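Archive entry: two folds, one per protein. Generate the first.
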Amino acid sequence: MLKRVQHDEVGGSMIDPVRPIGIEDIEQARERIAGTVLRTPLVRIDLGDGRDIRLKLENLQPTNAYKIRGGANAVAALSDAERARGVWTISAGNAGQGVAYAARAFGIPCTVVAIETAPQTKLDRMRSLGATIVPVSYEQAWVAAEEHEFAGLDSTFVHPFDNHDFIAGHGTMGLEILEDCPDAGTVICAIGGGGLITGVGSAIKVRRPQARVLGAEPETAAPYALSLREGSPQKFADWQASFVDGAGGQSVTERMWQRMRPVVDGSITVTLDQTAEAMRLIAEKSRTIAEGAGALSLAAAMADQTIEGPIVCVVSGGNIDLAKFAELVVR
């Protein structure tokens, strides 16, 4: 069982200090989640431009999103006493499903502080997994994520991105990518809170340090690209809600800035139209559904023709209302 050292204080709560995600953390996570998480395929697609582009189809996970990797590992890594208190998390839908799925497997209660504008599909799925939903505004959810606490909840908090075990779970994806594509030149991941790219990047940079790890953000919410330009974590003043609800945060926190900088080589900002087109192409080429956040990586690869291949695009999730999906891909 992992031993926890409580150092930092945020919002009055003691939390784990930031430390690198070691390859041993990722390998241990892989063992913990082996019976829960699907080893997703890496599918090559032909866009007619001669480039080697492959899709890591995390939309095929049992919860249709990569967050099950982190959720399963984080809940499994808790002590018996921590699990006995039940767990809670913050989510626009995918993290909530991942944590709720793991909580149900352990027979413990789960509460999700859920962004009230999340797609109904995601809200329904969290409830079906046994989660109690506490609806809040995006702003309230982001404050809770920054402060690591929410009034009235005293169960064990599983942070949806700023959690060592959660991130290590995502790193298992990086191991799979390099097993299926040992010569990967570039790996692209959507950036929301930063947990996905930190986990994948941590594995890639150990096993194949010459590969580039790039982020992808929508133009309506691109705080990491802004932070890179400014050289420090920034708030994205012009943040706008969009159908890309699973990525694109309001800001980069200091802790996640510390986590991402060593393992991320840059970030590409894409338009909403480019994202919708990528959703259409993923459906056409792989016959799977990607939500907005899940299509950001392919949109970024299409937007920058100079990216070196083979290019691996992480399709992080496919939880979107079908009517909305149809509206976006046929317009």
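Generate the second and append.
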Amino acid sequence: MVSTRRSRGLEQFFGYIRDQSGLTILDLAGATQQNVSFITNLGHRMYSEDFLHIHRETFGLDDTVDQSNAGRIEYFLRQTLDYPEEHFDGVLVWDSLEYLAPALLNATVERLYKISRPQSYLLAFFHSDEKRTAVPFYSFRIEDFNRLTVVEQGQHRPAHLFNNRGLEKLFLRFDSVKFFLTREHLREVLVRR
């Protein structure tokens, strides 16, 4: 299923970087020409990682490998987020964090904190229906400063379904967390480092 919709979180994310140039942005959804073109046409450098693909390669399609194994966590972080400290001015996390078990999730959020510059922003999406056992996972294509094309890629069992308080605790080290609820039962979360 494909839909195009307004995104308040994306609008606020771009509100931060829109009038600047030469920033460094990380996209965890893998490289899509549309996202790369949009970001680079604004005068920014873009890095991309296919975070969920590497997650499936490292931990199995059905999370069959233990996500609390310290060696495997470090291997995964080296494959996905091996960047210098305070390297990025913004990170498009999308919906990738809700599929990580607690130990891996906490290590990933800590690494995102380290590789983000102070006053930078992260945009992450989380499903808000806490009763679901499987949720759609998406690819996201940036159409404009406040509009996304959302393409459903299938269903997956999330490791977590967060409420607002749980997300505030997850991003406790960060300066602020702001929430926007969408009609797809996605909670857009804008986090400032």
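Annotation attached to the second fold: The chain has one domain: 2-192. The radius of gyration is 15 Å.
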